[in-house]
Design a protein that fits this description.
By secondary structure, this protein is mainly α. Helices cover 58% and strands 5% of the residues. It has a 3-stranded antiparallel β-sheet, with no helix packed on it. The radius of gyration is 15 Å and the shape is elongated.
Length: 137
Amino acid sequence: MADVSLAIDYVLTKHSGAVEVTSSGMRTRYGLREGFDLALQASLFFSSMTRSAAREVARNFYHNAYCNPLCIEWINDQSVANKLLLLASCVGIKQAGKMLQDALSVVGNGDIGPLTLHALDHSQPEQVLSDLDLLCK
């Protein structure tokens, strides 16, 4: 089974801990976008919170809001778990789930559940990663 902490660490290293402003004027930090969650905004996550405190907030947020619905802890291959979580941080949970289902040729709505996990268990991780890369282009 994948280590959720390692998957979150992987995502946090791929995104900046600095507050950045997108071309649409939204602030982002550690891959999380302003407006996604009001509690993040209220906590000063996108403004004056220190980088170390923001990293812990992001870690908890990814664990609860991303890893749980993506069933990261139930994925057998760490590389696939890392890729799926990173993908979700870029395109959203539902879209990342749908992309995984498409890579596995599973008919689905983007919700990761027993059918998707079963197909993933019986797939080759390298092929899944390759197919996800193709879907990202």
